[in-house]
Amino acid sequence: MHVFKYSPRKGTVAASMPNQIDGKIKEKRSQILINLSDENQKAYNKKYLSEPQEVLFEEEKNGIWSGYTSNYIKISIKSNENLENKIININPKEIIKEY
Fold this sequence. Notes:
Elements: H1 23-48, E1 53-61, E2 64-69, E3 74-78, E4 87-90, H2 92-95
Antiparallel strand pairs: 1-2, 1-4, 2-3
């Protein structure tokens, strides 16, 4: 989910409408939606990451390779091997960590 707060643009009809929402309220609402999105993403990941997944690894930073499953779940693992553009079948339960 992508969350965007409305920002009035000078010269638009919407910018001149009455009863504009206060910036603090917009920020609070945005944060609620971002938190909901994070919870939904974790539930989605948990559902799919209970069994082995094929991962296409794309990039490496400081020995951490990142790639995506076929349903676009990001996976990161430590490896000294060059994994660029390799598809590897992994068991996410064994490797998921915060890097």
